[in-house]
Structures are given as structure tokens and as C-alpha cells.
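Escalation from tier 1.

The customer reports that the assembly of two entities below gives different C-alpha cells on two consecutive runs. Tier 1 could not reproduce it. I'm attaching the input and our single run for tier 2 to review.
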Amino acid sequence: MEVGVTSDKNRKSTGSINRFLLILFILNLFYGCGAKTQIVLLPDPDGAVGKIEVVNPRGTRVLDRPWESTEVASLKEVPGEARIMEESEVKRVFHEALNAKPQPPVEFLIYFKSESAIPTAESLNSIPAVLETIKKRGSQDISVVGHTDSMGTADYNLDLSLRRAKKVAEILQAEGVDPAIIEIDYFGKAKPLIETPDGVPEPRNRRVEITVR
Amino acid sequence: MNVVIIFLLIILTGMPGVINAADTRIGIVKNVRGSAYIERSYETIPVKAGERLFEKDIIITQKDGSLGLILRDNSLLSIGPSSRVVLSEFRFEPAENNHSFLTRIKKGTLTYLTGLMAKMNPNAVKIETPSAVCGVRGTHIAIKVDED
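Tier 1 run:
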């Protein structure tokens, strides 16, 4: 299995924009020049603005201002001049898709004492809020992911993070959450919330992340 | 004794991989309106909320259909009516820093709000349309593809 994973990774690392141009070229052969596409950069719910690169064999157009849009008539034409759309026009064109957007998932953190898989008493106080969120969202997809601080060996911490995640999953299950919708994962000390050198105790990294989707 | 230690090491180091391999779902359908289907392994399944999603699923909506999905990296994809969208590739492996998401929209409308993956690797998210590829470095995008 290791071999499969490695070769898969190597193959993926060669994937670049060139690969997509090749895909587009092949699509072009099969389907002709491609249907008209309209692309809009929306501001985030929190107001920040990202960046989109629109690429085809004829050129690239970058969108990086709110409500900026480009139309691409076909694979054989450069992506059109960027223009700022009216918010009302965007909401009209994308009305149904925008309405279908789910509420973002909600995350909770449960903390642990050093070397322990028993949540701190304070953390346990947030379990009712987790249950309430699961119920309110009608969630059928919950992740429980265990972590540790950087004290101790990688193997020890991997095991500790698994025990922490399992403990939190057990608590949720005892409160009536269907175990079939809980997915457990664990990373040991590999994914700290707060970066520290190795061998440093850090209570904020001794955690289980619960994501309610 | 040595055998026991080696055995424990195999269990401890090997298990994350085992869990990932056993459960390859890439997300979940959160909400559905009207007629929406998933084409999976040459079968067409009507979609309900809670339906699990897998790589290569094709999502199809009729004139009255729309739906919202939450993917494993907490990104949000919503699809409007008369659409056909392929979830071609989804890799979210934080332990290996191995990330990629490739969606193809053949027709219709979608909106996408990036999640953890785009934060970890801004080149990881691509949406392909019949006439261009969109590299989504962040964070909120809407796409409409006219029928040919």
C-alpha cells in the first residue's frame, strides 16, 4: 500500500496548469470550441476578497476585485475583459445556486491535561453546545480529530491523539449521537495549532477538534 | 519481546493510512430542492440530504433542482438548476500535505467557497469549464456555463 501511495503522489506532483491545458485541448477535439462561461469573484461572507485565475489556451485573466467577472466565449478566445458586475445582477443570475449554499460547518475544541485522554472539566462544558449544534443542523457528518503537544515521541503521540479522539467520540455516542456519522482521525504532534519546538508542553495543542457539518 | 514492539509500531504508524483507505468519502449532501441526481458507476441515484459523496460522482439537477454540498475540507459547493457537475478529483490528506480538488462543470451554475485545502495550498483548487480552467486561490466564486 505504501508503494501505491508514493507513486500516486509522484504522478500528482507533475500536475500543473499544463496538464489542464492538455485536458482542454483534448476536450476541444471532442466537443468543439466549448460553451460560453461566465465567472464571477464574490466577496467572502466576512468581506475578504480572494483571487481567481481564468486560463485557456488563448490567455489568462485574473479576477481579484469584488464582483469582478469575465466571460469566456470559447476555448478559441481569450477570456474577456474583466468587468465589475452589479451585486443585484449576480444575485439574479446565480439566485438558486446561492440559495442552496449550506451553512458553514461549526468547529469545537476539547482540551486535555498532559498525557491524558480525559477532557478537562472546562472543555466538557461545551459538549451540550456541540449536541445542540448537531441537532439544529440535522448533521449527518461529524469529524473528531485528535492532536497532542510536542512532548514525547511521534509514536506515543499518535497513539495518545487516537485515544483522545476515541474518548470524545464515546462521549458523543453516550449522549445519543449515531456512531455511524462520526468519523475519527488523529495526527499526533504533526498538526499543532500553535507551532512550538519539539519537546515543549503546550496546552492549546492538546486537543480534539470536533467539526459538525 | 522484539516481535511485540515491531507489531505495535506497525499498528501505531500504519493505522491512519488504513482509516483513510477504508473511508474515501469526500463530502456530504447538506440540502436538496427539486430534482437532483448523482451518477455513480453508471447508476443514477436520486439525491437526498445526508447522501455521501465520492470522487468521480456526477451531480445532475433538473430545471427545478438545486443542492448544497459540504466537502471534507469544509469547503461549500452549491449547484443551481439544469446543471451537470463532475467531482473529478478530491485529495485532502493533511498528514501528507497532499491536496487537490478538481471539479468540472459541463453546464448550469455553481458557487464555491473554499475551505482548508485552499488555505494550505493555494494551487490545489481548480474548476474546469468547457472553455477555461479557473484556479481558485480564494475564496468565493460563481460560474455559469451556457448549454452548447
